[in-house]
Design goal:
Radius of gyration: 34 Å
Order of helices and strands: HHEEEHEEEE
Strand content: 15-25%
Largest sheet: 4 strands, antiparallel
Helix content: 10-25%
Structural class: alpha+beta
Strand order of the largest sheet: 4-5-1-7
Number of helices: 3
Length: 191
């Protein structure tokens, strides 16, 4: 009799555990189904990209299902503009006292220039502004004694970061002997 009672008790405990587990799973199912109780929830679309860092997408409920490709037709570019060459970084390029002005992203930036400003000084002054532009001196290897060129490059791509507004040499906005020529225009990406 005791063994029979213990067996019945074990069976009842197993049934109780199974019932409790079933109740828990039904509750989870009810919660999941409640998220689909309206037609708009059943027709929701989801957009996914194979590379979210490069391209992301969203979908509305009226979006057509399918696989879509995106083709980049033009990459974003940063502005690069280079000055005429001088003998070295220590060559004096300042022709008067004033400000060397340039515009980045629509904002005018200025570096003070004097008649003793060298190419190195101008590069360092531009970089000290932390204006979204990097100034470097490039020796292009050209002959004729003037291989060192000051090159300004936007730190970010796109038209919003374009470098512009550099006046001709010896003017109010450019009291130097440098003439700048754009070698790469800023552009936005398109697809």
């Amino acid at each position: 009799p005791v063994t029979l009672l213990q067996a019945k008790r074990t069976l009842q405990e197993s049934l109780l555990t199974a019932y409790s587990d079933l109740t828990s799973k039904l509750s989870a199912l009810r919660t999941a189904v409640e998220g689909m109780d309206e037609a708009s929830e059943l027709s929701a679309k989801k957009a996914a990209s194979t590379n979210d860092a490069a391209f992301s997408a969203t979908a509305s409920g009226s979006a057509s299902a399918g696989n879509y490709s995106v083709t980049v037709t033009k990459l974003a570019q940063a502005t690069t503009t280079a000055a005429n060459g001088v003998a070295s970084g220590s060559t004096v390029v300042g022709t008067a006292s004033g400000n060397f002005d340039f515009t980045v992203g629509g904002v005018v930036k200025s570096v003070a220039v004097t008649t003793s400003t060298t190419l190195d000084n101008l590069r360092d002054g531009i970089n000290a502004l932390n204006a979204g532009v990097t100034a470097t001196i490039i020796n292009d290897g050209s002959t004729g004694g003037t291989p060192n060129k000051l090159v300004l490059t936007s730190n970010s791509t796109g038209l919003a970061n374009a470098i512009s507004g550099i006046s001709g040499p010896g003017t109010a906005g450019n009291p130097t002997s440098l003439t700048f020529t754009e070698s790469q225009a800023a552009q936005d990406a398109s697809f």
